[in-house]
């Protein structure tokens, strides 16, 4: 960045070691460039504070805090800070950050929301986990500006949606000492509101110095709500209106906007959004644990054990011969609103194998049950009754169809319904329970810190 604050041209060298390639973005406090270290050739994101703020001790301290907080948390879900310094003597300060390739959560929500429930839980669990780690630092760190803009999704080890949390620049430190020693615990005055109001709890809008870890829990709740519904729970046109709506208007229940959301997840998100901090999860770690429990409950390949058991039973029948009839337990209907996972490839293969085994079993039983006729024998003439007499004799009764005597299982017997109602076997089958398959921004941008 030049002395007048204009954009740096490609090829500009910063602090004798970072060569600028291109501008990535800019905000009220500075600009971010793609650059490369001249010696190691490592690509970096170079974040530069505007020169006019270089003499503002509070803003410089906030800039420094971003690097210190990232180092203190020390987690793969926090963007790495490699270096910090000044562009020139008494010039602008810079941060050399990990260069990320992917998309912001803001872009994903704008393009694809509402997102699948499992994906929301996966992303939300990662955000809560890393923020929970910040809450356990010494001193404890509250991010205070969690929003989709500060959540970046990259691909890591072949897996997509790996979360990187950005911008700890306005983080609040809770404890007796700050990260760098005797500095004040907060860089904000009571009258200042830092962060993005759409994602801030009422207590942060009222007094930014009165917050604790539960403020971040509220912000994560807003992010979860927005991923699930494509809208924020409260959207005021001004700071005053936002605060008024937060304190007076009820939030639309998640289930009223997204019927397929699990009751437990809907309840958890709504607890995060409570006006009363005491009603929220105690910190982000508790929230992460709850989301992890929901992820473990999600159906994956629940049909596979049934298919494997059926194939095993058929194999035993064909190998060992006829067996006694078995009691079959039918699963009760699924609760309304649950989601049935589609069958996996393994399930389909097992089902096809089971079908082939059934076919072989039927053919085998038919061949065994069919008597061999001597080719030289002759059958005596049958004295058949008159067709009209037969019709008369069968008009008031059903003609039973009896299975071959060699049938090994009583379940192979089939009977026709009588005029007075279904057969006993049919009535019994109707009493058995059956399996019911369930059916299936306003966004404010904070200045770049």
Tell me what the structure shows:
The protein is α+β, with helices and mostly antiparallel strands. The protein folds into 3 domains: 1-99, Phosphorylase Kinase, domain 1, CATH 3.30.200.20; 102-298, Orthogonal Bundle (Transferase(Phosphotransferase), domain 1), CATH 1.10.510; 301-320 and 343-360, no CATH class. Helix content is 36%, strand content 13%. The strands form 3 sheets. A 6-stranded antiparallel sheet has the order 1-2-3-4-6-5, with helices on one face. Helix 10 packs parallel to helix 11. The chain is globular and about 95 Å long. The two termini are 16 Å apart.
Please supply descriptive tags for the structure shown above.
alpha+beta; Phosphorylase Kinase, domain 1; Transferase(Phosphotransferase), domain 1; 3 domains; six-stranded antiparallel β-sheet; three-stranded antiparallel β-sheet; 13 helices; 13% strand; disordered C terminus
> In terms of structural class, how would the helical and strand content be classed?
alpha+beta
Distance between the termini: 16 Å
Low-confidence stretches: 176-192, 300-340, 374-382, 387-449
Strand content: 5-15%
Give the oligomeric state.
single chain
Biggest sheet strand line-up: 1-2-3-4-6-5
Number of helices: 13
**Whole-angstrom Rg:** 35 Å
What's the CATH topology label of the largest domain? Answer: Transferase(Phosphotransferase), domain 1
Helix fraction, binned, reads: 25-40%
Please give the CATH architecture of the largest domain. Answer: Orthogonal Bundle
The figure for the number of domains is: 3
Report the sheet with the most strands, covering strand number, pairing sense and barrel closure. 6 strands, antiparallel
- CATH hierarchy class name of the largest domain: Mainly Alpha
Mean pLDDT: 73
Output the CATH homologous superfamily of the largest domain.
Answer: Transferase(Phosphotransferase) domain 1
What are the secondary-structure elements, in order, as H or E?
Answer: EEEEHEEEHHEEEEHHHHHHHHHH
Task: Tell me the overall shape.
Answer: globular
Number of strand elements: 11
